[in-house]
Amino acid sequence: MADSSDTPAKAPLRVLIGCDTFAPDVNGAAKFAERLAAGLVARGHDVHVVAPAASRKHGSWMEVHEGQPMMLHRLKSWRWYPHPWLRFALPWRIEANGRKLVEQIKPDVVHFQSHIVVGRGLSKAAIEHGIRLIGTNHFMPDNAVQFTLIPKWFVPTAIKMLWAAADRSFRRAEAVTTPTRRAAAFLEAHTSLNQVHAISCGIDMHNYTPNFAPRTENRVVFVGRVEEEKKLDVLLRAVALMDPKLDVKVEIVGDGEHRRTLENLTVELGIRSNVHFAGRVSDEDLRAALTRASVFAIASIAELQSIATMEAMASGLPVVAADAMALPHLVHHGENGFLFSPGNAAELAARLTEVLTLPEDEYLAMKNESLRIVEAHDIERTLATFEALYRGEIVTDPVTEVPRRSAAARLKAIRGQATDLSRRIRAGRS
């Protein structure tokens, strides 16, 4: 067997990542692109990111994201006023801009994160110049149309047109990815694509802090955009149905156009004093909110993966989630949390109550199961897989479908938690 030191090191790559949304935008696609770019820089690659300008200022300059410096090419953008903050690159300029940037940067690979504007221009330029092209889909048309002025009667046709546009751009790519197997099947069902890779967005578990101290309050947390698609009204209605003796507190971390409506709903439901709208916060404050929470709740029915749910699991939280799209991929019913029928506030209330009233040993077992399941989504595996795709190597998708534990294994874990809990109690008394 040859010594590993004899294996030649692979040359760093020049990677051009194209996004329709990137930091400071707050959403899953923007966060993934940011972490991907930073992770690649940390591995020694030369990374360039093309994204709409976050203001009227546009051009190319160095920015630091996730602690890593990278070259940003901010395209002239316009504000999309039906949305609370979204800006978009000018679509009639994107092909010329894409061609100019590809010729200037001379990347080894182009990786677009959205087909709508930036990805369309960069994908055409990459094909023209014979550059390897990778596409990743984070898009669901149903989420996008709510921020348009399209009349309801035209929505089904608009969704078909959006899928057709996605098909055109992604067909140009040599490889197409999306975060989960369910999301891949969803994309294949709505386009002519096949063999879509399921590659997790990934998470660095070292950035999150589980809390195993005895519970002193019942705190439900949600992290994400405060928009209609997240179905936060279902969560608030569920909390209003719960036993007042539980004194449930809700912390909603994030902001969006639906916040005022939800604040009014808490007044209507008589739970205003129990709900804290934190708004947009720093990464440190977000992680602190997850650490102090008792359970994470998400009622959304349109998640292709849900980075926020993975962050909660990395913080050791049980999760109560809608049984829809990719959430069952992360939540093993009865093991690290519970699933509920989408839109059913009464069932969500019952599941949250079940978590918050568990015996301490069973509650700790759920926390540890969240940690076990999310380990499969380690960011380093994600980065290594994309590196291989960029080089044109044969790729086996990382296995992130963690098997459910047997009944015997679950019982053993709960007994182990009970033993650990008793040991800590005895140590505290001494």
UniProtKB/TrEMBL annotation:
GO molecular function: glycosyltransferase activity
Boundaries of every Glycosyltransferase subfamily 4-like N-terminal domain copy: 26-205
UniProt-listed Enzyme Commission number(s): 2.4.-.-
Domain named Glycosyl transferase family: residues: 213-361
One Pfam short name: Glyco_transf_4
Enzyme class of the recorded protein, top EC level: transferase
Keywords per UniProt: Glycosyltransferase, Transferase
PANTHER family: SULFOQUINOVOSYL TRANSFERASE SQD2
Protein name: Glycosyltransferase
Source organism per UniProt: Lysobacter korlensis
UniProt lineage: Bacteria, Pseudomonadati, Pseudomonadota, Gammaproteobacteria, Lysobacterales
